[in-house]
Amino acid sequence: MPENVEFSPSEELMQTDEIEAICHDFVKMGVRKIRITGGEPLARKDIDDILLRLAKMPVSLHMTTNGVLVSKHQEALLKSGIESINVSLDSLNPKGFHHITRRNDFEKVMEAIEWLKTTPIKTKVNVVLMRGENDHEITDFADFAIQHNLDVRFIEFMPFQGNEWSINKRVSHQEVVSILENHLGNKLQTLAHQAHETSTNFKIEGTSAIVGLISTVSQPFCGDCNRLRLTADGKMKNCLFSDSELDLLSAFRNGTSIQPIVRKGVMKKRKERGGKDFNAKADRENNRSMVRIGG
């Protein structure tokens, strides 16, 4: 998480019962997959309870985490039957990790990955690529995927409030593919695109490793996106980049059905990137920071 994050008062956030009830409404409307994200989801004191409650719903359960607190929640993660966990890891070098995260938690993250490999939980590693920061590690991460029989996904650096995004920091889809092809040669084989998939995936021949690219800036996939995001304070976003939000928590607390609100939000989903122009500073800065959206 970034430094100097202002935490919202507890009363402004969804409580355990509210998360369960609101998610139950989404399930009634046809949602079949729930991913718990952050910030850092494992930092919530009630996360084990949340996991076990959601596990009772007819959905596939998933999580994205920085991995630091995985060791403290192993029992609940296994008990919940969670299907997959994405671990955020932007450098395979302890010094590089510290430079990017400003934390000395590299070993904890690696230990989390090693533990996850011993479980039935599908494990992926997410890497946000930033030019001049970790783009020199692309081939190292490909080798890491092979060595550990994992999926590694390279995520294009995206503009959010306070993250100092610029087009020059972005490493494009084609650039990453070119680097991987030069490194792996004809071992890199494109996999068929699945419905509503956000990544372009490549199988590394002769291994069980897969590398994926999520390239929202250079190759947007908005037309096939079926995601909705529910923030910790109960706001629904129909697009990661949209600054438009619908207040489900206030409606729920007032006894109003959230289902018509959700349907209205879905119908207002824009064609591409929430209708935003990434070259316009105002369009980049009006949205929440990523830590306050969840991803």
TrEMBL record:
Record Pfam families: Mob_synth_C, Radical_SAM
Cofactor(s) recorded in Swiss-Prot or TrEMBL: [4Fe-4S] cluster
Keywords on record: GTP-binding, Iron, Iron-sulfur, Metal-binding, Molybdenum cofactor biosynthesis, Nucleotide-binding, S-adenosyl-L-methionine
MF annotations from Gene Ontology: 4 iron, 4 sulfur cluster binding; cyclic pyranopterin monophosphate synthase activity; GTP 3',8'-cyclase activity; GTP binding; metal ion binding
Biased composition (Basic and acidic residues): 274-287
One Gene Ontology biological process: Mo-molybdopterin cofactor biosynthetic process
Transmembrane stretches, start-end: none
Keyword Acetylation: no
Name of the protein in its database record: Cyclic pyranopterin monophosphate synthase subunit MoaA
Native source organism of the sequence: Sediminitomix flava
